[in-house]
Amino acid sequence: MRGVVNLLMVLLGASGCSNAVVGHPSPEPLRATEVILLSPMSAPEDTARWRITEEAVGGCHSSSISPANSRARRCFTEDSQVLDPCYVSPFAGSDEALCLSDPTGGDAVRIVITSDA
Fold first, then answer.
1. What is the pTM of this model?
2. CA 28 to the chain's CA centroid
3. 100 contacts 38 by C-beta, under 8 angstroms
4. Which residues does residue 59 pair with via DSSP β-bridges, in sequence order?
5. 76: helix, coil or strand?
6. Which end of the chain has the lower number of beta carbons within 10 A, N or C?
């Protein structure tokens, strides 16, 4: 009986049933974070480069994604969408923000702001 147990242990070890992880490749090394500085409404003509895919009405609050940008916002539409990051217009009398799902793309949602905290 002892010989059978020893043989079984040798076979299990040889077949890869050990503590080694099989079938899980080592993870790829982490890449550096790419920082993209974005100011989509620095000048009146800047808004023309964005394709407005949707328009909505809602309120905005300071963005936790872009705390260093004083014009960055997180906006909540009247139909309960959360959009972040959004950027309020720097121009006096403007009550709109542009919300971007991809800062390298050209699509934006225009929000008419009802409250800005």
1. 0.63
2. 21
3. yes
4. 76, 115
5. strand
6. N
Q: What tens digit of pLDDT does each residue of 51-86 get?
A: 899 999 999 998 877 777 888 899 999 999 999 889
- The CB density around residue 81, as the number of other CB atoms within 10 Å, is 14
User: What is the C-alpha to C-alpha distance for residues 71 and 27, in angstroms, rounded to an integer?
Assistant: 38
Domain extents in the chain: 47-116
Helix (H, G, I), strand (E, B) or coil at 60: strand
User: Where are the extended beta strands (E) located within 78-117?
Assistant: 82-88, 96-99, 107-116
**Closest alpha carbon to 97 in 111, 76, 82:** 111
d(CA 25, CA 22): 8
Q: Which two tokens stand for residue 30?
A: 């982490």
